[in-house]
Specification:
This protein is mainly α. The chain folds into two domains: 58 residues; 213 residues, MetI-like (MetI-like fold), CATH 1.10.3720.10. The chain has twelve helices and no strands. The longest helix is centred in the first third of the chain and has 56 residues.
């Protein structure tokens, strides 16, 4: 056997070993996904059964409703068209606030990072503002900006802005100073340094904040609707709670949770296509 034949045989054997290892890895990953999804289904079913039959043993039934009653009420809201109007209003408020909060948060973070003195000055005030319960600001926003859509959008934007700002600044600070210095030595300065080093380095933290903050935008919009609104999911929940329509209250809560899950799934899909190196493995 020549050296070339021996080398070819070795390469073929190596390829077979690698192929078998890759196959085992894919099979293990498939089994894990199946296990996780089965666990999610089983846990969900167990919680629904516990709610249906166990909750009335602890709390009076009219205050907790039941999954069957909630499903029936949800079907009524869908069929008569009332639910779609509430969903449209809340999604519009949360979506506008989400986009505004991301844009302003990223811009403010870049300014603070570019001017360290300004970061030192604004830091204590931002920390104090972050600690304020946002529910305490909702009535103030209603008084300042009226009963329309604007205060809900601003509340949603505020909830998103603070998280995006903090995560972006933390992401930039987490970049290795040595990497920045080496990049400067190689000629990367100003906008080029930001584009080639700072933004890619901070991208995982920024993307994580963008992925996770839509739920905060929904919270901000619904908080505003709790205080003063004539339409929206928050208005539906508050009105139903005042009238002791427990099934409608839970139906509204379920819709909010489903909407957040759907929007987060869309954001993950966009992220995996646009920024595959930042995409994290979804849990479940």
């Amino acid at each position: 056997m020549t050296i070339r034949d021996a080398r070819g045989t070795t390469e073929h054997a190596t390829a077979q070993v690698l192929a078998r290892a890759a196959g085992r890895s894919r099979a293990a990953a498939a089994r894990e996904r199946l296990l996780v999804r089965s666990g999610i289904v089983l846990l969900g079913v167990a919680l629904l059964v516990l709610w249906e039959f166990g909750a009335p043993l602890v709390v009076e039934r009219r205050y907790v409703s039941s999954p069957s009653e909630v499903a029936a009420r949800l079907a009524e809201l869908v069929l008569d068209g009332e639910l779609w109007g509430h969903i449209g209003v809340t999604l519009g408020e949360a979506g506008a606030g989400y986009l505004i909060g991301i844009a302003v948060g990223l811009a403010a973070a870049l300014v603070l990072v570019a001017v360290p003195v300004l970061d030192e000055i604004a830091g204590p005030f931002l920390a104090a503002f972050y600690s304020i319960p946002k529910i305490a600001l909702a009535p103030m926003f209603i008084m300042w900006f009226g009963l329309g859509v604007l205060p809900k959008v601003l509340l949603a934007a505020l909830m998103v802005f603070l998280i995006v700002l903090a995560n972006t600044v933390a992401g930039v600070r987490g970049i290795s100073p040595g990497l920045v210095e080496v990049s400067r030595v190689m000629g990367a300065r100003g906008a080029r340094l930001v584009r080639t080093v700072v933004l890619p380095g901070a991208a995982p933290a920024v993307v994580a904040s963008i992925r996770l903050t839509f739920s905060r935008a929904m919270v901000g919009a619904i908080l505003g609707e709790f205080i003063a609104a004539a339409q929206g999911l928050g208005f539906l929940i508050v009105r139903s709670s005042r009238q002791f329509e427990t099934a409608t209250v839970f139906a509204g809560i379920v819709v909010v949770a489903v909407l957040v899950m759907l929007v987060n799934a869309v954001i993950r899909a966009v992220e995996s296509r646009a920024l595959p190196w930042c995409a994290q493995r979804p849990h479940g």
